[in-house]
Amino acid sequence: MTLFRQLLGNKKAMVGLTILLLIILVAIFAPFLTEYSPVKRVGRPHQAPSWEHWLGTTRLGHDVFARLVYGARVSLAVGFGAGLAITIIGTVLGIIAGYKGGVIDEVINFFTNMVLVVPNLPLLLVLAAFIGQASPLVIAVILGLTSWAWGVRVTRSETLSIRQRDYVKSAEMLGEPSWRIMAFEIFPNLISIVGINFIGSVIFAVITEATLEFLGLGDPNTVSWGIMLYNAQNASALSVGAWWDLLAPCFALAVLGLGLALINFAIDEIANPRLRTGGMLNRWTRMVRIGEGKL
Amino acid sequence: MTFLLRRLAFYLAAFIAAATVNFFLPRLMPGDPIQIMFASAGSELSLENLNALKLTFGFIDAPIGEQYLRYLQSVFTGDLGRSIKYFPLPVTELLGRSLVWTLGLVGIATLLSFALGTFLGVMAAWRRGTIFDSIVSLTAIFSSSVPAVVVSLIMLFVFGYQLGWFPNGYAADPLLDPGFNWTYISSVIHHGTLPMLTMVIVLTGGFAVTMRNNMINLLGEDYIVMGRAKGLADNRVMLWYAARNALLPTVSSLAIALGTVLGGSLVTEVVFNYPGLGNTLYQAIIARDYPVIQGQLLIMTAAMLIANFAVDLSYVLLDPRLKKA
Q1: Which residues in chain B are contacts of A129 at CB distance < 8 A?
Q2: A130 vs B26, B140, B266: nearest CB
Q3: What interface predicted TM-score (ipTM) does this complex get?
């Protein structure tokens, strides 16, 4: 919990956490923020922003602001859901591989390296294309199952060095079961790596969900930021001058990205005081960029 | 040598794994796999053509093991099937058409971002803790946390629609005849600038962060202190002592980034309607042209593996210890 306390004392972390908290509050209290339903026709097509419709309407006459605040729910749910799954799989496999060693390590390591070299994005596209219209839940599950490899690699290499420490050795000599050592001696020392892995995975999941939906692989009836982009693009929002239709979800995704990036930056500063933002950040910028196969 | 052979065997296994995914996915989906794969063809395919296509993907009247071997055989002989949307056109030829545009756009954008990112990373690390460092690091991390589609759309809106500085689509003026003359080339450059700028914005951050962190790790080394103690000029220590060594790990991420070039830049190409590999893949997704989508997965995997192998090779050349391992 010291990590959490240190985060509260970091300026960048506080700005990032505030942004994130605001978006979470908007998502929770969406029905109180707008009188419109996100899926009902409430105005004429492509009305410009006005007092009545703060962010204008879509081509189908939906209220853009309503879709934006309700859409936050899906983006956050997929981001945090998939991020959690990626982190849990990566951390558990990484600790087991690093601590147990031997054949178990070789097997896990082999699969990890294999998942790492097969480019993620076309794989996701092939999966999503066969599934057809993937719901947010399906997207989150696919992301969780295909994107854990970086987490394993980082956690494993850190576990390898922690395994040699005295307190682990003494726990072993006391005859503690290995699951206890992994859970209570090794895991607590990995907490900042797990934190960076988690936030990085959330960013990755948010970006990838929006991208898959923008490309038309999502379920068009969902209310999410990615589907908003997809619909606006299909309605040629820019060429007919309805910029609000397209820029609203763009802005929302950028703000969420900024908030998460600040938090990750801060965790890294705290984790590596000597380096000030060294080391670990490599992992997720690379994961985000190469993982999405350079979207 | 054994090191390289082991890597080679591993890459072969990884490639077969990607092909295996391709083989089993349609068969795992509920319903008739043949129906799923070739449904979008409708009745345009003659029975004879459909049978040839089925053969490529291993849909033969045999046990699943034999079907699988049959599919692997097509893959390894370079037969990726034919596009369903543009029927008799083989997948390899369809992808080949857009290859040149992607190589130009994404290849140049990757190299530019690498140069710019590396430069910014070196400067930020050298002046770590200053305002310059904070601005570079934060911008780099922010630009890697925003979806590429958002950056592309905003660039298109501002420079394409509002300011009208650049065209909104295509690789060149469609009214011009392609040729090696200045009118055509200038049109290509004019059309390519905006997507290229977008990609540079998207990609530079990652390279900058990597370089900065490598460099900061090295700045604590003894030979850096030694260089300074000798009274060498700052620039000389920065570039010839620190940056040169920090560059080594970055080169491997450049190789891998170049390995993903073959994927094109899916989102940027779609937003700017640029006729590269990414856009071809997108059109295939819309038309549910499965042979093209699957072919693209295999080609991108192969490119990634070749890039990884190039990295391994360079390590062997740079680190003699690996030769004996």
Answers
A1: 285, 288, 290, 293
A2: B26
A3: 0.82
